Amino acid sequence: NYLLGVGRADCTGPVAEVPLMGYANSDQVGGGLLTRLYSRAFIVADLEDSKRVVFVSADIGMMSQKLRLEVLKKLKSKYGDLYRQDNVILSGTHTHSGPAGYFQYTLFWITSKGLIKPSLNAIVDGIVKSIDIAHQNMKKGNLFINRGTVENSQINRSPFSYLENPASERSRYSSNTDKEMVMLKMVGENGQELGFISWFAVHPVSMNNTNHLVNSDNVGYASYLFEQEKNKGMLPGEGSFVAAFASSNLGDVSPNIKGPFCINTGESCNNPQSTCPVGGAKMCMAMGPGYDMFDSTRIIGQNIYLKAKELYEEASQEVTGPLSSAHQWVNMSDVSVELNATHTVKTCKPALGYSFAAGTIDGVGAFNFTQGSVEGDPFWDGIRDQLLGEPSNETKACHKPKPILFSTGEMTWPHPWHPDIVDVQIATVGSLAIVAVPGEFTTMSGRRLREAVKREFDSHAAPGMDVVIAGLCNVYTHYIATYEEYQTQRYEAASTIYGPHTLSAYIQLYRGLARAIATNTVQDLPRGPEPPVFNISSITLLPPLTVDRAPANKTFGDVLQEVRQQYQANEVVEVTFVGANPRTSAENATAHNFLTVERHNTTSDSWHVVQNDASWDTRFYWTKGQIGRSKVTIEWHIPHGTELGVYRIRYFGHYRKRLSLTHTVSIPFEGTSSTFEIIAP
């Protein structure tokens, strides 16, 4: 028996003009909303309430050090020492369609257009609010664990790197991805269903880098389906049941299960360099199972949801036992690793290799770099040396065979480009150990880490631990490939920023945490060096928020393109309004809803909201025009089984108006479509 609390809060942030975080493609800028982003918080406390563990999974690309430090600062001012560095795990789902701009290290500013305060604040506030809700709703309950295999939802996107791992190791596994989903189910003592956390390794990149609508991708769609089912009669984002689909060792795992094809010729490009005969690496893209990216997101999300549903319903193995947590800060650019009694190696100052610029088959890079580059290129080296400085001989030697593109650990202007100080953290809930990792472990890296942690627990009289990896936690350090995978220098290896022995260093560190928990000596662990906090106000290349303008003889919210009079299920209702910049709305309200679909109730002659902007079936598009003008188009993809009747679509916005030279205000407005009827086919 434990005290359990769950909470969910909106963390969407600005949906327009802000770059999306994930593909590092500066053209991929927000232009609307498909589904809202949420932070989902889970608190477990023992009945004496002497120990607590908090796990948060947020629909964002990854946690950042700045996010974590700000969240913990707010928790401290609210709750004192209840929620701390050691017992709060913050994990990102790794959607590539959420707003960027919440990092303090310079590298991430380049494609994020700097540090974007509205982005950062929305995520910090959303995470804290979700924890507040969980904290306020603690009740006695029970935990159950279950695990099972998810089929047809992932492929290894660097199979040639995976094959570099020893044959004896590979032969112990049936697949080159981890297909297992682990589920932790929470039930109140009166049988009330509270929610669950599941962990499964897949990249949320069913939405590709041509997408401009903010959304939570495949795992977010799985959460949406589960929460819609359990919170009956509620709009998306409402209701008390919380379903988290959290990330795991997804480093080399893609949901684009048809594999890589040349988009110009249609032939396969499943080769070690992921290149096409015509057009090179730029043309090689992996395809999902659907007819477009929305459909692929739906199919993969539904697969994951259906497995979770089965595991949830059948979960019967109860989790009992004490709670514990351990956390350290480590200077990852300077860890000595004892490989064996005679051999010690070291990690390196962070650096990114050439293949980092190649991207992956899920999202290719900009300049036709190819994966698997173990040679530099005099042209790019020359540009880099001029702009950013040449890597030192020491760093070059340390990272071999990686040819260094950006020696980020030696770049400090205006602030360091990459973190040196990294969080390592484990929390245990009875027999479940949650290993919170600061990046993207590949399939085999994850297996080695889980095994090492399990062995450590076993050898200190804590046998039978279920070890799960929670990905993208606390601070982002790109990828962690195995030493063998590192030698081929595909994207994941080129992005293993602390050099070839990164994984060995993490294994050593997490074993130390596991040992401390198992032997009850957590209080003796050194805290490690505190991460720096750079004093950055808001450095941003975002266009400034200007005054919004409506066309002549029109006003904000007027309909420019009307709906038809009748539709059938599976058709798309579309209406276009005179719009205003959605960023103005985001700065006015934490949870602004941009649209509703409403059904007319004839008996009461009133309108009833049936969908909102968090709904999977609605799409909100914002198009910027000249001199402050803009248009908003709202689509409703009428789902099968929609009740027949009379409907309308409404749009809610804010426009910015100038009162004087120095003073602007934002003014709320709304627009409503004509009514339309949904008829039987």
TrEMBL record:
Where is Zn(2+) annotated to bind?
94, 203, 440, 479
Task: List the active site.
Answer: 254
Enumerate the Gene Ontology biological process terms: ceramide catabolic process; long-chain fatty acid biosynthetic process; sphingosine biosynthetic process
Q: How is the cofactor bound?
A: Binds 1 zinc ion per subunit.
Which cofactors does it use?
Answer: Zn(2+)
Q: Does the record carry Hydrolase as a key word?
A: yes
Neutral/alkaline non-lysosomal ceramidase C-terminal domain location is 511-678
InterPro entries linked to this entry? Ceramidase_alk (IPR006823), NCDase_C_sf (IPR038445), NEUT/ALK_ceramidase_C (IPR031331), NEUT/ALK_ceramidase_N (IPR031329)
Please provide one cellular component term from the Gene Ontology annotations of this protein. cytoplasm
Matching Gene3D superfamilies, A to Z? Neutral/alkaline non-lysosomal ceramidase, C-terminal domain
Instruction: Describe the location of the Neutral/alkaline non-lysosomal ceramidase N-terminal domain by residue ranges.
Output: 2-508
Reaction(s) catalysed by this chain's protein: an N-acylsphing-4-enine + H2O = sphing-4-enine + a fatty acid
User: Domain of life of the organism in this record?
Assistant: Eukaryota
Which key words are in the record? Hydrolase, Lipid metabolism, Metal-binding, Sphingolipid metabolism, Zinc
Q: Does this UniProt record's set of keywords contain Hydrolase? A: yes
Q: Which PANTHER family match?
A: CERAMIDASE (PTHR12670), NEUTRAL CERAMIDASE (PTHR12670:SF1)
Similarity-based family: Belongs to the neutral ceramidase family.
Q: By what name is this protein known? A: Neutral ceramidase
